Amino acid sequence: MNSFIIPKQAARLAVLQRIELANPFLLKIRKLFGRYIFSNLVTKYFLNANSIGKKYYETMLNEFLTLEKFIEQNHKSILSIGAGLGGLEIIINQKYNDKTFFFIERNYVSKKVKYGWDSSNNEAYNDLKVQKEFLTLNQMDHKKINIFDYDHDILPEFKFDLVISLLSLDYHYDFQIYQNYLKKISNTDTLIIFDTIRADYFKKIFKSVETIRTDINTVHKSKRIICRGFLT
Ligand SMILES: C[S@@+](CC[C@H](N)C(=O)[O-])C[C@H]1O[C@@H](n2cnc3c(N)ncnc32)[C@H](O)[C@@H]1O
Questions:
Q1: Residue 37: inside a domain, yes or no?
Q2: Which one of 97, 105, 133, 149 is most buried, by most CB atoms within 10 A?
Q3: Is the Cβ atom of 106 under 6 angstroms away from ligand 1?
Q4: What is the CATH number of the domain that holds 216?
Q5: Protein residue closest via CA to atom 22 of ligand 1
Q6: Rounded distance from Cα 150 to ligand 1 centre (Å)
Q7: pLDDT above 90: residue 117
Q8: What range does the domain containing 128 cover?
Q9: Torsion over CA of 30, 57, 46 and 34, rounded to 10 degrees?
Q10: Structural domain includes residue 213
């Protein structure tokens, strides 16, 4: 596999979740006509799903390579917060095939997709039906897929081995929103990996905080950190 199978509706979501998948022409259109037209018209009718499937796959493969050495044999259940369509999880599934995936996501697309820090956490760009279809189309067995709607479902409450949140938790919205929940579903061995612009802040929250990647060329200038063990 060197590309995802991606229907048009999913390709639109992928571009909204990962703006770097849009080609320079689309980015110019976004600049000219604004985010509303881009999110609601351009991404609906003017995308080439095949090329987005390929680019999304390459992007997620690169993300996987930053995380690969932290994914262990005994990590059986993975919790992904704000995984978007779940391209990364498809790649993890291909490589290991013995993991079960729990996704916490949202089931709507904001009218004007903004990529800033949103303390009220109103921004979302997903459709859970499209996500499930995308995962199964790309060979993730439906028995391994558990999707929870952050706004409406009771979230899973057992201990996870690995929690992953790329460009979502503490990148677009405050870690605090999930802090108590993460305490409940983790133990001292659970690895919690996410992107943040304030890595040092987490030294007061976790026993161990390790930076595994630094992005200085993005607007957010974020760090990817891996945290273990809540201090209190
Ligand atoms: C920038 S996208 C990143 C998607 C994916 N992690 C990636 O790296 O391609 C952020 C995702 O977080 C989701 N999101 C927003 N608020 C959330 C929340 N409270 N819980 C879970 N997901 C959330 C959005 O719907 C969106 O899919």
A1: no
A2: 105
A3: yes
A4: 3.40.50.150
A5: 82
A6: 10
A7: no
A8: 66-230
A9: -10
A10: yes
67 pLDDT more than 90: yes
- Binned at pLDDT 50, 70 and 90, residue 211 comes out as very high
Q: Indicate if ligand 1 lies below 6 Å from the C-beta of 103.
A: no
CB of 168 closer than 6 A to ligand 1? yes
> Does the pLDDT of residue 150 top 90, yes or no?
yes
- Return d(Cα 173, Cα 167) in angstroms, integer: 10
Domain contains 102: yes
Q: Which long-range contacts (CB under 8 A, 24 or more apart) does 197-206 make?
A: 197/117, 197/170, 197/171, 197/221, 197/222, 197/223, 198/170, 199/223, 199/225, 202/175, 202/227, 204/231, 205/175, 205/179, 205/230, 205/231, 206/230, 206/231
pLDDT at 46 over 80: no
SS3 state of residue 121: coil
Residue nearest to atom 6 of ligand 1 (CA): 83
- 41 is a domain residue: no
Which protein residue's CA is at the shortest distance from atom 27 of ligand 1?
Answer: 84
CA–centroid distance, residue 127 to ligand 1 (Å) = 11
Return the structure tokens found at 72: 């262990």
What residue has token string 């279809």? 133
Instruction: Check if the beta carbon of residue 151 is closer than 8 Å to that of residue 158.
Output: no
Ligand 1 neighbour 125 (Cβ under 6 A): yes
Number of domains in the chain: 1
**CB under 8 Å to 143, separation ≥6 — which residues?**
none
Quote the pLDDT of residue 24.
Answer: 81
Cβ–ligand 1 distance for 77 under 6 Å, the answer no
